[in-house]
Amino acid sequence: MAQKERKVKAPKTERQRKTKNYVATVYDAQGFIVWAPNRNDELQQLEAGFDLPQRANGWADRKLFDQGPGCYCVVMHSHSSSSYVITREEAVSRVLASPRQGASKRTFPTQSGLSWGVRSKPSNPSFSAG
Q: What is the pTM of this model?
């Protein structure tokens, strides 16, 4: 009789952590990591891990918007040595940017019903040859 092997599962009380590929850290003008209160009013460092660089950029923009002038954020990729800097000015401009307009001209709804307004056609004068 063949018995099936059962896989041993980790207890549900232990939470397995995913490794985040991108780490964003906010620094002040002197180069120190910024401390800010969290939801429980406890001070914590402004540093977070993300799976996607877009998420790290959005988080950095929101956090830098609340900070003072001279602050910046460094987003580093954990598996390679690549990193880039986001300044507060860039973050503020992205947060306060107006939404993009559509490619076509916006038409406003007209009144429904009959319209007895002036209508004109271009005139095409014709002259006789004789």
A: 0.62
